[in-house]
Design brief:
It contains 10 helices and 9 strands. By secondary structure, the protein is of the alpha/beta class. The chain has a single domain, classed as Aldolase class I (TIM Barrel), CATH 3.20.20.70. Strand 2, helix 3 and strand 3 form a beta-alpha-beta unit. The protein is globular. The protein starts with 5 loop residues before the first helix and ends with a helix.
């Protein structure tokens, strides 16, 4: 994914991306609407359940103002599945060359996962400029990211940390100019989705948006 791409700019415009695990397709549309009501207009649907791809299709149909992508893309064939379901972008937890190349060939904006300088250099081979920093919390947080990204600062790479991000620590990341956005499931937890607590999800989104503006 290139920094100046239209999808990238919308994905990072508010600094927050909701990472979602959906078990029931019927929850997809009310979930997306509840996040929109709270000010969140970018989501990553993780390929951890069979409901992910049909949920994406439902959201694209009923909530077109939501920028919806697919995460946890592990194999090249999943790139095609995501693209065919209407994904605006793709995300992977690591830097698998075959998967990144498949995304490039498919024309799917893609953010591979990085945690080391070698991961960053793999992503650079495919002209990726927005990278997923994962797992952010357990790998050393913003201090680790600043250290490994320093040799590439002149390339203007941007990062989206995921893993261990919450409302209490998100501004620790957002206050740094190498951060394009932060992502997390706390905005709409799996438990809240399954209990259909749309009001709580909207409230969480509003709170996060308000707090992020201080960064």
């Amino acid at each position: 994914m290139r920094v100046n791409d239209e999808v990238a700019q919308k994905l990072t415009s508010k600094g927050l991306v909701a990472v979602l695990i959906i078990d029931n397709v019927t929850d997809a549309v009310p979930l997306a609407k509840s996040l929109i009501d709270g000010g969140i207009d970018a989501i990553e649907l993780t390929l951890r359940t069979e409901a992910a791809l049909p949920s994406l299709e439902a959201i694209r149909d009923k909530v077109p103002e939501m920028l919806a992508g697919i995460g946890t893309i592990l194999k090249p064939e999943q790139v095609s599945q995501a693209k065919n379901a209407g994904a605006s972008f793709g995300v992977s937890p690591g830097s698998n060359r075959a998967t990144i190349e498949a995304a490039k060939d498919a024309g799917l904006p893609f953010a591979p996962g990085i945690m080391t300088p070698s991961d960053i250099e793999t992503a650079l081979d495919y002209n990726c400029e927005i990278l997923k920093f994962f797992p952010a919390g357990s790998s050393g947080g913003i201090k680790h990211l600043k250290n490994i990204s320093a040799p590439y600062a002149h390339l203007n790479l941007k990062y989206i940390p995921l893993g261990g991000i919450n409302e209490e620590n998100m501004n620790d990341y957002l206050s740094h100019d190498i951060i394009a956005a932060v992502g997390g499931s706390w905005l709409a937890s799996r438990e809240d989705i399954n209990s259909k607590d749309w009001k709580k999800i909207t409230s969480s989104a509003k709170s996060a948006i308000a707090k992020s503006k201080r960064a």
